[in-house]
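tl;dr need the bound structure. longer version: we got a ligand (S-adenosylmethionine) that a collaborator sent over and nobodys looked at where it sits. i said id run it. heres the input, straight from their email, havent touched it
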Amino acid sequence: MTRASLDKQPHEVASMFDDVAARYDLTNDVLSLGQARLWRRAVARAVNARPGERVLDLAAGTGTSALPYAEDGAYTVACDFSLGMLREGRHRNPQLPFVAGDGTRLPFADGTFDAVTNSFGLRNFQDVDLALAELLRVTKPGGRVVICEFSQPVWKPFRTVYTEYLMRALPPLARTVCSNPDAYVYLAESVRSWPDQPALAGRLQHAGWQRVAWRNLSGGIVALHRGHRAD
Ligand SMILES: C[S@@+](CC[C@H](N)C(=O)[O-])C[C@H]1O[C@@H](n2cnc3c(N)ncnc32)[C@H](O)[C@@H]1O
């Protein structure tokens, strides 16, 4: 297998992330032209984790996305189904509890977490609606979700330039830093075929999340969706 195809067979997705785990964080910084760190700060503000809370970071990869919630004092569980990413994460962030688990069948009881979150993971799920429902199940009544995912730039001329970057510049750039550049062809294609802001909000509502809203980052390259579980 060279890259996960867009039908997103879970074993292919997991194996693709196993392959890129060692250079994953570095590659992110390079390909996002430094924006990834700003996006992560915005997600941390949106999650607003507090001491004593339990937070689930689903599809946490190497744990980079989970660190801010732990630093804010919450008991933070980093869950992912790529053993390669988890291994790299345990090495880099030994202070975090890493759990191997599939986001469509989470190994947690109902109502475990005050907040559940997912950064740049959902796009890779084979069954997004099932994952959104699972996240709702493991959230306490009154708890919250924050989804950070690539989205659609809202200003049309910028959208055109960005799509060109994704499809033409990103794969060659990936070749210079990444061990499996094909994974970044998949990245470009999966971003292009991902639902836009209103469509993802609709999927969250359909899964049962309430008071769903979103905020664009970097002109809509990334969107932060949030919602609440009913009390
Ligand atoms: C792009 S990485 C994001 C990692 C991290 N959240 C971050 O922001 O750097 C996507 C992650 O989603 C994970 N993933 C994809 N499908 C999954 C599933 N069904 N269950 C659990 N993890 C999944 C992959 O293994 C991968 O580590």
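gonna send this back to them w/ a short note. The two ends are 45 Å apart (CA to CA).
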